[in-house]
Write a structure and sequence with these properties.
Elements (H helix, E strand, L loop, with lengths): L5 E5 L4 H12 L3 E5 L13 H12 L3 E5 L6 H15 L4 E4 L14 H29 L2 E6 L2 H4 L6 H21 L4 E9 L13 H10 L8 H8 L10 E5 L2 E4 L17 H12 L9 H4 L6
Parallel strand pairs: 1-2, 1-4, 2-3, 4-5, 5-6, 6-7
Antiparallel strand pairs: 7-8
Helix pairs in contact: 1-8, 3-4, 4-6
């Protein structure tokens, strides 16, 4: 499905990114495998993970090169895109998958913990997409696939930094889809459920968390790759601005925020009238303080 395409996959040294890179290569794409080889918290650097995935793609008969640049700054993102142009002469797709976790409850979260996670996830998705945008505009085609999360779409404990970044990516993706549709450029999000090195850092301190982790362990990163490869392909030419979710063998499409109920009063409102009339009338449409596991309560097939 990707014959002749050149694809960049960030954070592709392991987990979901690795499986997307491998499947893209198996479907004919020439792949830039980007990974700085850092720890879960973003520390350190090791060229091994990216090199190993490149070797796997080549061993299967594909073409790939490694990129060790960080997505967290604009210069690094530009070098990632340039690596594709230098090695293969073009660029057709980006999978913004790179990420780190620094989980902590909000009242304990430091500015550094906030900043680092937002820089890799949200800024990283912006930087790489922005570096690719002139290339896509020039050739009048291109596909961007961004990894969001139900932590942002629904909510999760001790992840204010990660949740904010992942919901921000949804807004970024929609804006790219709107701004660049006239150039034939598409942008979509995937919220993946899969057991990976990053997810393995989830704190397990209750029976409910143990049960959630046990369910996640049944969901392999390889289940995410088919949807990503499809979205990169020409078969998805009419699909843009959407939010998908993959849970094992399930593919879901998410709603996007729209008004659900309204009240009005001739002459406007006083604070007292809001308390007495507006809020009671609207309360039936309020959302509870759900976390992702409250919504996804069933075991996927």
């Amino acid at each position: 499905m990707l014959d002749g395409k050149v694809v960049v996959v960030t954070g592709a040294g392991g987990g979901i990114g690795r499986d997307i890179a491998l499947m893209a290569g198996a479907n004919g794409a020439r792949v830039v495998v980007n990974d700085i080889g850092a720890g879960l918290d973003g520390s350190g650097q090791d060229d091994g993970p990216a090199a190993r995935v490149v070797a796997e793609i080549k061993a299967a008969g594909g073409e790939a090169v490694a990129s060790l640049d960080s997505v967290a700054d604009a210069e690094g993102a530009q070098r990632i895109v340039q690596a594709a142009l230098d090695a293969f002469g073009r660029l057709d797709g980006i999978v913004n998958n790179a990420g780190i976790l620094r989980d902590t409850f909000f009242h304990k979260m430091t500015e550094e913990e906030w900043d680092r996670v937002v820089k890799v996830h949200l800024y990283g998705s912006f930087h790489v997409s922005r570096a690719a945008a002139p290339v896509f505009k020039q050739q009048q085609s291109g596909s961007l696939v961004h990894m969001t999360s139900t932590s942002g779409l629904i909510g999760n404990l001790a992840q204010a930094n990660y949740s904010a970044a992942k919901l921000g990516i949804v807004g970024l993706s929609k804006s790219i889809a709107l701004d660049m549709q006239r150039f034939g450029v598409r942008s979509n999000c995937i919220a993946p459920f899969a057991w990976s090195r990053m997810i393995s850092s989830i704190k397990v301190d209750s029976p409910e968390q143990e049960a959630r982790v046990a369910r996640l362990q049944q969901m392999t990163p390889a289940k995410i790759a088919p949807l990503a490869v499809y979205l990169l392909s020409e078969r998805a030419a009419s699909v843009s601005g959407q939010i998908f979710c993959v849970r094992n063998n399930e593919i879901l499409v998410f709603s996007q925020p729209r008004p659900v109920r309204s009240v009005q009063r001739e002459g406007g409102w006083t604070p007292e009238q809001i308390a007495e009339h507006a809020m009671p009338a609207l309360a039936a449409s309020f959302h509870g303080l759900d976390v992702s596991s409250d919504v996804f309560t069933w075991d996927p097939a």
